[in-house]
Amino acid sequence: MFILQVTKAVAEAPFKHEKGKPSFSWYAEGSSTNTVKVDKSGVGLLKLWHQQLRQFNNVGVEVAQAIAGEYPSPQALIQSYRKCQTFRDASLLLADIPVRRGAGPLVSTRRVGPELSKKIHLFFTTTDPEVSLGQTL
Q1: What are phi and psi of 130, to 5 degrees?
Q2: In angstroms, rounded to a whole number, what is the distance separating the alpha carbons of residues 59 and 68?
Q3: How far are the Cα atoms of 27, 78, 91, 105, 118 from residue 56, in angstroms, in the given order?
Q4: Eight-class DSSP state of 37
Q5: Is 101 helix (H, G, I), strand (E, B) or coil?
Q6: What domains are defined for the chain?
Q7: Is residue 35 within 8 Å of 29, Cβ to Cβ?
Q8: What are phi and psi of 9, to 5 degrees?
Q9: pLDDT bracket for residue 19 (50, 70, 90)
Q10: Nearest CA to 101 among 114, 111, 116?
Q11: Is the pTM here over 0.85, yes or no?
């Protein structure tokens, strides 16, 4: 019965798509909120990278800008991880990046910190799909 239902849904998909209806009732339609437009020449990629970094807990605009200032793309960050001699060096790669907060006379700086650095390292380098970013290393 299941195979029959899926086959029918696939066969009807082009016609439903033309009518503007969702193709499959169980298919999640894409959301257009908070999307970043990237054109063919690559304009928008840095903004997308900032948005990806901001998906980590407690990462605001300033932290995302600081990390992207040092590593302008995910590929640049991954290449830097590969160049590290030890796992510890790689997991602390981002820890000492200075983060500027505020403007004018109220400017303060802090560091990205070791915990966030470890989480980002784990996210980009793990091969275990079940790993938790909250685990202690």
Answers
A1: -95, 0
A2: 12
A3: 26, 17, 15, 29, 12
A4: -
A5: strand
A6: 44-128 (1.10.150.670)
A7: no
A8: -65, -40
A9: low
A10: 111
A11: no
